[in-house]
Amino acid sequence: MAVLVIAEHDNNILKTSTLNTITAATKLSDDIHLLILGKDIETLSNNAKTIHPIKKILKCDNSKLENFIPELSAPIISHIANGYSHILAPASTFGKNLLPRVSALLDVTQISDVIEIKSENTFVRPIYAGNAISHVETNQNINLLTIRPTSFEKCEETGGSASSEDVQFIDNDVKTIFIGREVSKSDRPELGNARIVVSGGRGMENSENFNLLYDLADKLNAAVGASRAAVDAGYIGNEYQVGQTGKMVAPELYIAVGISGAIQHLAGMKESKVIVAINKDTEAPIFNIADYGLSSDLFQAIPEIIKELNLLNKLES
Q1: pLDDT band at residue 88, thresholds of 50, 70 and 90?
Q2: What pTM did the predictor assign?
Q3: Where are the domains of the chain?
Q4: Which CATH number fits domain 2-166: 3.40.50.620, 1.10.357.140, 3.10.20.30, 1.20.1270.10?
Q5: What is the spatial distance between Cα 266 and Cα 173, in angstroms, rounded to a whole number?
Q6: At residue 311, what are phi and psi to the nearest 5 degrees?
Q7: What H or E segment, with its residue span, contains residue 267?
C-alpha cells in the first residue's frame, strides 16, 4: 500500500523536516503521497510535484487552515487514512502536536521519534533520553510514525513529476481558535537546519555574555542554541533550546560552550558530525562525547577564537 507523509510548511515553502521524513518513507514503499494542508498553497503544491520520491500530492486549500490548528487537520487525515499502510510526520513540534490526535481518532498506537526503519512493521526509537534503544514491532493495519529528522538525509527536491488531487476539508465545530504568533527573526541560519551551531549553557552566567556567542556565530555563519539550564535561567529565549525538550539538531559542527552535558541536552545534539566542547570543568560529561575538547575559561577562549577568525578573514580577503 501507499505511504502518506504529512507536510510541515509555512504556506510558502516546505520545512526541511518534511524532506527528511520523505526519505524515511522511501524505506517503506515506492508509492509515497504528500499531504499539504493550508491556505493559498497552489504554488507550494506545484513546487512539491518535483520532489523525486513523491508520486502524488494531496492538497486541502482552505482559509481555516492558514494557521496550523491540529484539531482541524486531524479529522482530514483520519478521513483518508484507510488508503495507507503508514502515515508519517516529522517529530517536530508540528508532528508531536498533530499525530497524537490522529492516533486518537483512528484508535491506533502511535510510534514516536523513529530513528531507523528496519521493515514495514519494525521500527527503532530512542528511550530514556537516548540512553537505550527500543526496537518496536507492530501488527497494526495503519502505523502512525513521527520521524526524527536528524536521523535521515533530505530527499532529492528535483526530478519528480507527481500527480495532484484535492482533498475534502472537513468542517468541525472546533473550540480552538488561533490568537497570534510571535516569531523571532534573525539573519542567522535556522537552528534546526544550520550547518554549524554554537550553543551556550549555564556557564555563560548571564544573558549579556551571550553576545560573545552571537559574535562567534556571525563569524562562522552559525545558528545559536542553548541548554535548558541557560533557558531556564533566563539567559536566552526557549526557541533556542537544544535537547530532549527542545530542538533536535545534527549539524556538521556543534560547539558547546559552558555546557556541562546533561543527558537531556545530549539527546538533542549527539548526532552532530563534529562536536567541540569548551568548558573549564575537566570532569564535565560533555567531554565524553566531544570530538575535540578545550578545558579553558570560555571568557578567555571565545575572544581568542574570534580574534583568530578575524585574522583568518583578513588573510583570505
Answers
A1: very high
A2: 0.83
A3: 2-166, 196-316
A4: 3.40.50.620
A5: 42
A6: -65, -40
A7: helix 263-269
